[in-house]
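Build the 3D complex.
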Amino acid sequence: MLYREAGDFKTTYKEDNQTFPIKFDRYRYYFVLIVAFLIIPFWINDYWANAIFLPFLIYSIAAIGLNILVGYCGQVSLGTGGFMAVGAYAMYKLMTAFPDVSVMIHVLLAGVITACVGVLFGLPSLRIKGFYLAVATLAAQFFLVWIFNRVPWFYNYSASGQINAPERTFFGVPVTGANAESWATYLFCLIILTVCGIVARNLTRGSIGRKWMAIRDMDIAAEIIGVNPLSAKLSAFAISSFFIGISGALFFGVYLGAVEVGEAFGINKSFLVLFMIIIGGLGSIFGSFAGAAFLVLLPVLLKNLFVAGLGWQPDLATHLEFMIVGGLIILFLVVEPHGIAQLWRLAKEKLRLWPFPY
Amino acid sequence: MPEQLIFGMEVFLNGLMAGVLYALVALGFVLIYKASGIFNYAQGVMALFSAMTLVGMMNGQVPFSHLINAVFGTDIHHFGWHLPAFIGILLTMAIMVLLAWLVQKIIFKHLVNQEPIILFMATIGLAYFMEGFGDLMWGGEIKKLDVGIPQGINLWIDEATYNIFNYGFFIDNLDIFATIVAAILVLALVAFSQYTKQGRAMRAVADDHQAALSVGVSLNFIWVMVWSLAGFVALVAGIMWGTKSGVQFSLSLIALKALPVLMLGGFTSIPGAIVGGLIIGVGEKMFEFLVGPMIGGATENWFAYVLALLFLVFRPQGLFGEKIIERV
Amino acid sequence: MKFKLLAAAASSIAMATPVLADLVLPWMSYRTGPYAVAGIPLADGYADYLTLLNERDGGIGGVPVRLLECETGYNTEKGVECYESTKAEGSLVYHPLSTGITYQLIPKVTADGIALHSMGYGRTSAANGKIFSNIFNYPANYWTAASAGVNYLLNENSGSLDGKHIALLYHNSAYGKEPIRTLEELSKKHNFELTLIPVDHPGQEQKSQWLQIRRERPDYVIMWGFGVMNQVAIQEAANVRFPMENFIGNWWAGAEHDVIPAGDVADGYKSLVMNDTGSDFDIYADIQKYVVDAGKAAGAGDNLGTVMYNRSLYMAFLTHMAIVKAQEISGTADISQADMIKGMEALDITDALMAEHGLANVGPAFSVSCENHGGPGLGAVSQWDASAGKWKLVSGYLEADMDLINPLIQADSQAFAKENNIAERCN
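Done.
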């Protein structure tokens, strides 16, 4: 009844091909955009921005990137942390070398640089498949972390090796550095995420997305019908790394402000983003958002519940948090192995027929 | 003999020993992957958990003492007894079997026939859970593990090589002990899988679940058995590494050292784990010795992976792994 | 799910408006994670001292102290979350206890006007109070530690290290790399050979590094490690039979949990310290009476008297003195965050003051000023006695080579000022 398709006729090819053909979907999308752009910035404060929204936005971009590689193209990659580091260091070098160029250009360039690095480390995928590839991408992860630690040029020869984001403005409003207001950082990341989301959605709907999915499902058959595995796999690595690089640049520049490569971009980061896409749903843009939300909100919620709410000691709370996160992951997988996106799809299916059962 | 060559030999021997320790961890992965196609990310955490349980048993710690004290306001920490190592190991083994049974019943029974990446994810969830559970049960402080394994430089080798080369080689007693234990373990596992009924059943399950079912092999039983074996291997690995550096959180990170071994040797081969371990151990140490000083050191972390990657380019399923036959 | 979060957030915002005046002191602990073994006694010491103040004295100047413990697990993102969630409560001073989190927070606390005390860790150049208005790292920092260590070795070698070989075994992270520049300068000045040996996190495997040390036979090994790296290093040093008295760790590599796992072979290992340790201080009688026996101890009570516990008692003591000074200057007991900074800048720790509060001779006497947020930069050396199970000081408080270090501090802080457009103050 709500999700009505009856009476919704398309009269042009453009209307027929749009991302959200059902009116309800379109209006829902606009509503979310209005709330995100026009309502939240007035209400947001430092804690909400720094603890909840910024990590969610930034990890969503990384999750979209990794989902393109793992979910759509089927190449399991554990090098996400290393690529985020490339994005962060590229952003740092650009920001310090060209202080007058707009920070948005820096973020995009950081993504491009990461895409080039991603293509390089994606070359083994032409030969290696499955979990072997996953462990091979760990080579990229560890090597990149080592190189950023070792070569002083990357951290501008500072004594400790940490990099700090200097203050930069976007249309006159500071978005990096300590004086950046929460609404400014939030909007900056939100704009980038929206653009990334639209680009990713359209890429995966288009012919290149279909090539990726063909490679994922059965790559020998795909090759037979004319999909070039080299260009498909490397383009997946390139575009995925572009998104991951952008998220790394934002992670460093806007969210944390100072990073140390071993701790911030270690293997834990790679596994975290992988969890997000698996729990969210592989091969689904919505799933990337859902997974990122789940894994960003859950620890904060648990911490607030246990420490602030029940007054337990922080270390007991942390141990329980680990157990609950692990338990929920397992529960989720047992109940719905295809992730939150699958639950969403099922819900939409039911809603299309509601109140009729079938 | 030129000094560098002698040093090189010492590094080579130490590399072999290090490789054995890695292979010990990799064995657990191989066992589980062979029988059920699951890449068990939780193997490292299982090693940590089993080591913590062993220490807890031996020292007579009260499990969950922190939680009990917080909830009930009591102040109990120890039972007061001290168990000898042998009994501690038996009790810990019993707990690992129980854990295997629970894992199979609660998690993997419901995930039969899912894609490998879902199963992998489930083991990650298991790893998180066991990490928190282990800390909650036994506490996060560092514990000293002493089951009587000799440590320190092996004086006999030191003297013998001093007499030959005028430079005493440093080989740790613990490493020699670990090598012997690993050799026995591998021989036992290979003998088990080749010559016993259950071992053959395990290989049948590894080959084809449906076919194994149709000849009457109980999948559940085999999987519980395999997880228990992996638990035992994890315990041995945990004892070796825990004796070296104390039982604490970082122990779970040794799984990362085992992954290149798996890549190189193949996920499905027990001898492959050993050979892979030796190659990785030697390769990593020799690279650090020869090239490390020129590029700043600390190359061990990534070189193992790069080495395995190079092997994989020529043999994508690892040296001894099953060739992946793809059909369209 | 979101509703609960909203409710929790709303209630915490409501709670942020203080009904009763109290002095809020946040503590970023790591009772879990890879460094929990050090984090637990550190957290216990600070908490016990503040409990003592509340129980025995009714707070500071009559105002009770409120401790907000927030678990970071040494993770930078959790550190940010902890900071954001506690700053609204009126936190007076932050002890991030992690170099990574410190670097993170430096611009944030400056923008928010809150003090940050990174005692003996963090960004060394923050000692320059002209640039870093809110950051303090008294009484010593990593560069002065390295220099004090070298001065100790100079004393041991009758004033000359000419031709000697010193190896630095360091954790391959920002923390471990801190002393490198200072040691390189010192090696040029005193003509000793310096070998840098990195150990990758977590440092569980150090066979290659110690084989290298065994081959090259340096005269001394200085260690900049933390966590499991320390235990493994000491065990490996014993295995390769490196003389323990020539092995000196810095102040985060010299605690009981680092040496006890190796057992008797660790006897003679040395460590740099910025404060004394042990259970001989008079304050322990009070802690026993008002905190432990009253059942209010923060942990299991088994950390009393250990190195890390004493270090955070010292941190708490310095915070306590800064608050007293701030109350003096502002004239009110319920001080603000700006008052706290003034109090820390006017801090003057004398021997009498330390004795008065039951911590006689815990550290050197020193004072802080507007230009110098780093204190005197003194370090001593203590040695582990395995049979007695105690650390003993084997040197007095040695000065660092400030002629060499001051230009380095200036250069680093000026670079930071340039990157961030900070004007000099205290003029």
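Chain B is about 70% helix and 0% strand.
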